[in-house]
Design a protein that fits this description.
The protein is an all-alpha fold. It has eight helices and no strands. Among the domains are: 61 residues, Arc Repressor Mutant, subunit A (Orthogonal Bundle), CATH 1.10.10; 49 residues, no CATH class.
Length: 174
């Protein structure tokens, strides 16, 4: 394995300060990798990975980014959440859209998945996948409503009595 070389953008003391000032565990671990590589010069990625319990590939990635971007290598890294470039609508537009659907539903109209999909495609001027619609519902805490399995005023005793006393085999009248 090749020996890691790291550019000294920050001193060991500055690295330790930055590492300890991190608020998330993942950011702390990333800075810990950089600090370990800088302090243990001459070690391979697999040796450092064994100490830090990470994969050697992760160490190579972090060191490469640090060498390329310097001390600001973590500022442009984002994890999870909505990527505005890939979003069809902003959250505000989605809320306004669903508010209109809610008004239709309260007016007594049925709102089905297909109707919502057609309206979304009409609004954005393109096609969307089924997953986009279900994710839209989930993002705004909309749930699927289904009819009850039994009537709330049903007589359970009478139903059980009917099951016990009814004929088991149906024979047509001749």
């Amino acid at each position: 394995m090749r020996v890691l070389k790291i550019k000294s953008h920050l001193t060991e003391v500055e690295l330790r300060k930055v590492m300890n000032s991190q608020k998330s565990i993942q950011d702390f671990k990333d800075w810990q990798i950089i600090h370990s590589v800088q302090v243990n010069s001459g070690k391979t990625a697999s040796e450092i990975a064994a100490i830090l319990c990470v994969k050697p590939e992760n160490i190579y990635k972090k060191v490469q980014k640090y060498n390329k971007f310097g001390a600001s290598w973590k500022t442009n890294v984002k994890r999870g959440g909505r990527r505005e470039v890939r979003c069809k609508m902003t959250l505000e537009k989605e809320k306004e859209f669903l508010k209109g659907l809610e008004e239709d539903a309260l007016a007594g109209q049925f709102i089905t998945f297909q109707q919502v999909k057609v309206k979304v495609e009409k609004q954005i001027g393109g096609t969307v996948s089924d997953d986009y619609i279900w994710d839209l519902f989930k993002r705004h805490k909309w749930t699927k409503k289904a009819p009850r399995q039994s009537h709330p005023q049903a007589d359970k005793v009478a139903q059980e009595e009917y099951k016990k006393n009814s004929r088991r085999i149906w024979l047509p009248n001749r």
